[in-house]
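Explain this fold:

***
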Amino acid sequence: MRQSMTLIPTLRELPSDAEIKSHQLLLRAGFIKQIASGVYSYLPLAKKALDNIEQIVREEMEKAGAAELLLPALQPAELWQDSGRWYTYGDELMRMHDRHDRSFALGPTHEEVITSIVSDGVPSYKRLPITLYQIQTKFRDEKRPRFGLLRGREFIMKDAYSFHTSEESLDDVYLKMYQAYTNIFTRCGLDFRAVLADSGAIGGKDTQEFMVLSEIGEDTIAYSDSSSYAANIEMAEVNCDYEKSAELEKELTKVDTPGQKTIAEVSDFLDVQASNIIKSLVMIVDEEPVMVLVRGDHELNDIKVKNALDADSVEFADEDHTKELLNCSFGSIGPVNLPSSLKIIADKAVESMMNAVCGANDDDCHYVNVVPGRDFQVETYADIRFIQEGDPSPDGKGTIRFARGIEVGHIFKLGTTYSEAMSAKYLDENGKSHPYIMGCYGIGVSRTLAAVAEQFNDENGLIWPTNIAPYDIHLIPVNMKDAAQEELAERLYNELKGHRFNVLLDDRNERPGVKFKDSDLIGMPVRVTVGKKAAEGIVEVKIRKTGEMQEVKVEQLLDVLTNIFKEL
């Protein structure tokens, strides 16, 4: 491609609203253009890089036995109502009406549509298992779009769905997809980890995320320093032994704590460790209030609360609701003398506490010498806190460390969550109907592009891995008005294309400094410069990743480039 014939609107100034490297560089290098908050156009360079990522995805999906189709972005509300998600998905679902006042949604995902299609088209066990996938634009009305392509309202996604007659069949395809995803992100050049995860709004049980390691990642990964264990912090189990204190029980006493509401304030005022304070919170679990307890030096994990109670929805009660229940404000609530209708769930660490401190359900008052089991009863003890750095690894090997990650892929074992809700069934060999057992497998294609840009850059611009770079070679004649340079550049352009190199020829009448700055910013793997020695048949080759430069005779250029790309 001739650079004069494509659109690469590079910017010299740093975009003021771009917070992270990938967003800044993709805008500055002319890959993307923002149209609205969280909505971007993919300009020619980005489109070529996305095409390369999609090609890798298609090749690995075919190896895994998945067939490609394309589903509609516009989905009728009835399908979502059948699954129940029309009412539970939340405000991220973009809803609309047509001219006949029929309700539709722009698809954030396609479980309902694909389940409906397979239910009609695959009625017999003889056609199972089957795995279908698509690469398509998705829509989610993010409350706060940010970080460019990493959190947008419109994005490109690969989503695959598998249908089975047995859990063993699902396990087999799940493992194939795990390997396919590992291959995809490896071929994209990414530094990533597969971690245990929560299924969120998709549903189902067993699930893993593929996380690209990055300091700007919105997710925290808990990993072992001595094994391969890794999990999203929301799902990392706590595997601690809590020993009950040998201290003798003391008499429960109510004390005044004027103005002391936070754990830190109460700790300082009463001169006690945060680990000996019971943190009490009221949560609304499936529309019913529940008191939840954790130790003062621990943080409550609402995902674990939801899973421990097998709930559909969990949210924190607001202060007005709390006052209505307990006649006190936040900072003074506690588990002693609660209404009998309010059940208590507590973290396992609370069970071993002795002579602890908690709120007294009376503003500006706390209890001291609180003993669980004596002063209040807990209905369920469970692991409901976030794991912490330094905790033992759940697999018993080493201790936990934290890293930040960008989620680029997610695989789920859905089971019969959707097939049962939508009455989607197949007939077995005896003519008996059963709900399909399903799996779901997603990759954020445009998010992967941003994750690569986040990991591969320097102070001068982007540095694209060869497998997904828009072009292999940036061919730059320094002066297009110099006949020798123009002639040699045109000759090399045609010869390199003939040897299947993808070449971007900078044929613009720009100053050399502009061309070189743009080249570094755009970040193609190799730059070939045709300069003052063109008449002598000598060009300069620069490797973008290392900055290494060498002068090469034209007759040796093909061999040099072939060897370079073998190493990149």
User: Anything to note?
Assistant: The mean pLDDT is 95. The chain has three domains: 47-237+401-453, 253-382, 471-567.
